[in-house]
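Re: that chain you flagged

S.,

Sorry for the slow reply, it's been a week of failed gels. I finally had a moment to sit down with the sequence you sent. For the record, here it is as I used it:
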Amino acid sequence: RVASSIDEGFAIKEEIGWRVLCARAERSVAGLPADAVLGGFSMGAAVAASLWPTRPETAGVLFLHSIAEIPANARPGVPVQVHLADPDVFEPADEVAAWRSAAETTPIDLEVFTYAGAGHLYTDATLPDYDSEAAHLTWSRVERCLAAL
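Prediction finished late last night. Pasting the structure tokens below so you have them in one place:
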């Protein structure tokens, strides 16, 4: 199912349940190589993060439009890119600052990019939040990251 709004997405998440969503994600990646890149958009960043502890050999992690938990077993040097609107109603600046401070104490290779004035889901051209300049810059940075892996 695909939500047509953020509120509908939250309703679907509540209906299905977080554990079921994460279990479905686990099943969907089971056949992928251990070093497959993990990535998630908005709420999907937390889903990707839920997979990370059981996939420590991941080649990299991409969080777009959200921050998410970094597991204790994160491999030293694993590239992690984070792309956030600034400001973002779902990721308040104080929470992002606290997360970033904690993330910098982990062994990951962290890059955090913020996009001033962009809306929460600024990379989706079908939504009112879309920001073509920020989206283009995000995708070029993601492509650079993936090409380096």
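What I noticed first: Residues 35-148 form a domain with the Rossmann fold fold (CATH 3.40.50.1820).

Talk soon,
D.
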